[in-house]
Amino acid sequence: MIRQIITYPDKRLFMRSNEVERFDKELHTLLDDMYETMRAKNGIGLAAIQVAVPLRALIINLPDEEGNQHKEDLLELINPIIVESKGTQVYTEGCLSVPEYYDDIERAKWVRVEYYDREGNKKSLESEGLLAVAIQHEMDHLDGHLFIEKLPYLKRKKFEKEWKKKKKATKAKG
Ligand code: Y12
Ligand code: CO
Questions:
Q1: Ligand 1 within 6 A of 80 CB?
Q2: Is 65 a pocket residue for ligand 1 (Cβ < 6 Å)?
Q3: Long-range CB pairs of 107-111, under 8 A, 24+ apart, other chains included
Q4: What is the average pLDDT score of the chain?
Q5: Residues 81/89, Cβ–Cβ less than 8 Å
Q6: Where are the domains of the chain?
Q7: 95 CB less than 6 Å from ligand 1?
Q8: What is the pLDDT of residues 154-167, one digit of tens each?
Q9: Can you tell me whether residue 103 is helix, strand or coil?
Q10: What is the mean pLDDT of residues 90-107?
Q11: Do 97 and 109 contact (CB within 8 A), yes or no?
């Protein structure tokens, strides 16, 4: 089932999500719905809070060299923790909860993450480049942070001004 994505400035996006305690059917349905919702909206990553569920669960489905996404490549990370990180990189990020805004964000170049899969098995993953960016972006959602919070002061102000202008314009349209 495709769920509704909550968008900035919804206050739920700024709250810390809770640990997953039960690896049950309800969690599996949530993860399946998150996948369907992410694909329907052309996303490559989604955290549970973006569909209004405050649980520490996220999915990532990066495209291949041709830009195609394959379900076999889907990553599901439950209760993830970054245990090691190295270096820095800058990538132009976007977020389904902040539609139509993209900007350059600096993050670690390489991260090692420990997490659980949907069955509750403990896993570890090393990543760099785009996957490392996606993991850090989605993990920020679990702690109630959006990528726009990483913008320098003036860029953030510009974003907020443009956002208000856009909101006014869509309201006027009806
Ligand atoms: C690198 C950078 C950011 C991430 C986090 C995951 N971000 C996304 O999946 C963003 C998706 C996105 C898709 C959009 O397209 C549609 O909505 C159709 C989009 O465009 C508009 O809002 C118009 C914006 C963002 C991982 C790795
Ligand atoms: Co996001």
A1: no
A2: no
A3: 107/132, 107/133, 107/136, 107/137, 108/82, 108/132, 108/136, 110/85, 110/86, 111/82, 111/84, 111/85, 111/86, 111/135, 111/136
A4: 97
A5: no
A6: 11-173
A7: yes
A8: 999 999 999 999 98
A9: strand
A10: 97
A11: no
Of 41, 106, 109, the one to substitute when testing ligand 1's pocket (max ligand atoms within 8 A of C-beta) is 41
Tokens standing for residue 45 = 């990553």
Q: What is the pLDDT of residue 173?
A: 75
Number of H helices, E strands in the chain: 3, 7
CA of 63 to the centre of ligand 2 (A): 17
Domain 11-173: top CATH class: alpha beta
The verdict on whether 138 is a catalytic residue reads yes
Task: Tell me the one-letter amino acid at 33.
Answer: D
Counting ligand 1 atoms within 8 A of each CB, the residue from 34, 38, 42 with the most, and so the one to mutate, is 42
Task: Please state the pTM of the whole predicted model.
Answer: 0.97
Query: Tokens 């209004």 correspond to what residue?
Result: 52
